[in-house]
Amino acid sequence: QKEVEQNSGPLSVPEGAIASLNCTYSDRGSQSFFWYRQYSGKSPELIMFIYSNGDKEDGRFTAQLNKASQYVSLLIRDSQPSDSATYLCAVNIYNQGGKLIFGQGTELSVKP
Amino acid sequence: GAVVSQHPSWVICKSGTSVKIECRSLDFQATTMFWYRQFPKQSLMLMATSNEGSKATYEQGVEKDKFLINHASLTLSTLTVTSAHPEDSSFYICSARDLTSGETQYFGPGTRLLVL
Predict the structure, then answer these.
(1) Sign, Cα dihedral of A56, A22, A86, B26
(2) Any residues with CB less than 8 A from the CB of A59 and at least 6 apart, and which?
(3) Most buried residue among B4, B66, B87, B109 by CB atoms closer than 10 A?
(4) Tens of pLDDT along B69-84?
C-alpha cells in the first residue's frame, strides 16, 4: 500500500462547480498535511496546510482533515478554468527529518 | 510569503560536463532544503535532504558522488550534477523548509536541465 494515495484523475468539473480532491495516508504518525498545486511545466506552489481535525478555509479553498479515517481532502469552490492543474497531497511524518511524502497527484480540469 | 529562488532556470550542456544549480531562501532561513527531480508526466521524486553544516542524506538509488550537494549557509544549497549524461536531463526542483510556518516546504521555480 502506498503511503499517500490520490486518484490520478483526470477529474473534470464545469466552471463554477465545487471540485473535491481526496487523499488517504497510511502512517498514523503523520502530523501535518499539505496541498500543493502544480501547473504543467511549473514547480509546485503551496495552497494550504492543515494540522488539526476539521476544516480550514482560505478563500475558495477548504481543507478537511479526519485523522481517525486517515483522510484529507481539498474542496475548491466556484472552480475556474485557471484552477486546472495537478493537485498534490503531501504528508509530513514525525521523525522523518521534515521529509514530505507526496501522493501521485490528481489532475483537475475545469471546463468553461 | 516565503520565497525560494533557483538559478539557473534553464541549462543546456554537453555530455560529460558538470552543472551547478543554486537554491536560495530569500526571506527566511532554511536549515533544511530538499532536492527533487521530476520527469515529464511523472511525480516528484525526492533525491536528497540537504542540512546546513552537515552532509546531505540521499534517497535510495541516488548516487551521492554524481549529485553533489552543499548547504553552506542557512539560505543557500547547491546541487552539482557531475559528468552529466542525457539520461540526467530532467526538471530539478528544490524546496526549503520554513520552521516558522509549521515546517512548510516552499518550492523554488525549478531548473530544466538538458544534456546533449
Answers:
(1) positive
(2) none
(3) B4
(4) 999 899 999 999 999 9
